[in-house]
Amino acid sequence: MNITGFNQTDGCLPYACPERSVSTAVYVLLYICAAAVVLLTVFGNLLIIISVCHFKQLHTPTNMLILSLAVSDFLVGAFVTPIVLIWTIESCWIFKRVYCMFFLSGAYFLTSMSIYNIALIAADRYFALSNPFFYTEAVSVNTMCVVVLCEWLILLSYILALLYLNFPYVNFIKCPGDCFLLLDEIWSLVDLVVTFVFPFTVIIVLYVLIFIIAKKHATAIRELNAQTRTQTSGNTSESVSERKAARAVSILIFVFMACLFPYFIYTLLGSVVKMEFESFRNVLILLYLNSAINPIIYALFYPWFRKCVKLILTFQIFKTDSALINIL
């Protein structure tokens, strides 16, 4: 990963993983916990992917963004999180050198994808609230799929270019016991702006605007209900549903930012303050734990997801016309 504060000017220690300082029981427990996190991440996000892809009612533009986020989280759980957890437990990079490059590529790419997926979800919600009629006409499922595909291709191109131009600084060439990328000051600044400052600024600004718009809508609904008491039940149920959906998305984004913020702060301070690499691995764990937390948020705040999980686990999705089941 991008660790600008770890300048190996003093040379590398001989390649040797340190001996374990914990008992065998604790060592086994750590691996059991790591396996549980990986399984939760993989199967939780797989349930989201199956739900959105299978049920026709969930084929909406917003859910295409949720699908994209679930796919990136699934790939994190399958290919990145296991390596990070093993790396942390062993306190040493125990894999082959060639896998270091694949790990760096996947970790950079999937982390950036998650950030920009969240930014697109914020943009989608703002656009839907600020221009609901135009949004309904202009944004379709196919349009959103094209946007998501372009997002994946653009970020993949950026990450490959970043790694290609900084390939001489991949640390395993010098220190076989570690696997991280050292960027110079210019590339560190560019990467910080592209993968953190810009998308997080977009997220914060859009959600401030969403909060203002939602407050205006709530005030207008209260005034309308005060003037006309008829048809209030329908308006009330609709507004409650919208508030629940907005709260779920807000919690999703808040948790996401809480998990990613320490990593980027650590990266930013790494160029100023010399830090221990072991503590950086702990920050990485928090970063990738977000992929396991997202399905829990869906399960807690999205009734449709709980219904989908029940239908999937009871194999009812294999029935004829199961894709047309009413889950909303």
Helix content: over 70%
The biggest beta sheet reads: none
* Rg on CA atoms, Å: 22 Å
Order of helices and strands: HHHHHHHHH
What is the fold named in CATH at topology level? Rhopdopsin 7-helix transmembrane proteins
- How much of the sequence lies in strands comes to under 5%
Helical element count? 9
Shape: globular
Number of beta strands? 0
Overview features:
Rhopdopsin 7-helix transmembrane proteins, single chain, disordered N terminus, mainly alpha, 328 residues
Written overview of the protein:
The chain is built from nine helices and no strands. With 328 residues, it is an all-alpha fold. The protein has a single domain, classed as Up-down Bundle (Rhopdopsin 7-helix transmembrane proteins). Helix 3 packs parallel to helix 6 (185-227).
Summarize the structure.
Helices cover 75% and strands 0% of the residues. The chain has 328 residues and is mostly helical. It is a multi-pass membrane protein.
Write the layout of secondary structure elements.
Elements: H1 24-54, H2 61-90, H3 97-130, H4 132-138, H5 141-165, H6 185-227, H7 232-270, H8 277-301, H9 303-313
Helix pairs in contact: 1-2, 1-8, 1-9, 2-3, 2-5, 2-8, 3-4, 3-5, 3-6, 6-7, 7-8
